Amino acid sequence: MPPQTGSTPGRRIRSVKIAFNIIELLQNENDIGVTKLANELGHSKSTIHSHLRTLEELEILVREGNSYRLSLQILDMANHVRDQAGNYEVIQKEVEALVEETGEIAHFGIEEYGRISYLCKATGEQAVETASRVGTSQPIYSTSLGKSILAYLPDSQRDSIIDTIEFAPKTSKTITSREGLYAELDQITDQGYALDNEENIRGLRCVAAPVRNGSKVLGAISVSGPSSRFTDERLHGELSDYVLRAANVIELNTKFS
Predict the structure, then answer these.
(1) pLDDT at site 256
(2) Chain mean position to CA 215
(3) What is the separation, in whole angstroms, between the first and last Cα of the chain?
(4) Distance separating alpha carbons of residues 19 and 57, to the nearest angstrom
(5) Maximum alpha-carbon separation in the chain
(6) Domain boundaries, the chain
(7) pLDDT (0 to 100) of residue 12
(8) CA distances from residue 23 to 26, 37, 107, 254 in whole angstroms, order as listed
(9) Backbone phi, then psi, for 194, in 5-degree steps?
(10) What is the side-by-side strand order in the sheet with 194-197?
């Protein structure tokens, strides 16, 4: 794994990592017992049991018989993180408007740790479903959201992120070099929006526009769909117009909120 932007060297606390791994595993599969957690995470049952008791006392987990699940306190934390966006209601409204206009999938994403993380997602009636979920992340160099953000970051911040990237092809069309990425970022600043031409998922194309507040890049908004419907003409025409309009609405509401 490449070094994460903003990370600092120092002492690591093993017990914190174990606790996080327990929470992450329970996120993907509810109602797991001590034995399965120990086997999945490669720790002794006594170690896992101690961590479970602590997390239960903190009301992060709920014990039901011999198994555990995440508590609703996790939901409260998630809502707090979402609300830190400040203008989340406007973002959600514009993401949903994109879906109404296109019938496809729309996302809003932000940059975290050199990746693109999804803050908001909406799915239209004719959308081709993807594995993206709110809170998950994708490589910043192979997504239209990520590239549109990178293109408008201050040079030093952009270069710092790109320095951490270990380019790996997600498909045969993925950018796999710094030079190729910088060349595309120049093109993005010229046209004002970014494309994902089946670079992250084969058969899926996306167009995204950055959302800015002065020199600060708040995130990006995109619409995605199958290459059969997302032709070059539509991507560079109505679809790019849709995301640029949505980005402008969010920007205006951010400036005057």
Answers:
(1) 58
(2) 22
(3) 39
(4) 13
(5) 61
(6) 14-76, 85-255
(7) 78
(8) 5, 10, 25, 34
(9) -120, 155
(10) 137-139, 115-123, 105-112, 216-226, 204-213, 194-197
| 217/215 Cα distance (integer angstroms) | 7
The tokens of 109 are what?
């994403």
Domain 85-255 grouped into CATH 3.30.450.40 = yes
Residue 239 has pLDDT above 90, yes or no: yes
Calculate ∠ Cα 204-209-213, nearest 5°. 150
Which residue would you say has higher pLDDT here, 128 or 91? Answer: 91
Distance CA(152)–CA(111), nearest Å, equals 12
User: Would you say residue 137 has pLDDT above 80?
Assistant: yes
Q: From 3.20.20.70, 3.10.129.10, 1.10.10.10, 3.40.50.300, which CATH number describes the 14-76 domain?
A: 1.10.10.10
Provide the pLDDT for residue 6: 47
pLDDT score at 3: 44
Contact 104, 248 (CB under 8 A): no
Give me the pLDDT at residue 4, please: 47
Q: Which residues contact 15 (CB under 8 A, 6 or more apart)?
A: 51
d(CA 138, CA 229): 23
CA-only gyration radius of the chain, Å: 20
Lowest-confidence segment of 66-80, 110-124, 213-227 by average pLDDT? 66-80
Q: Is 117 left (phi over 0), alpha (psi -120 to 50) or beta?
A: beta
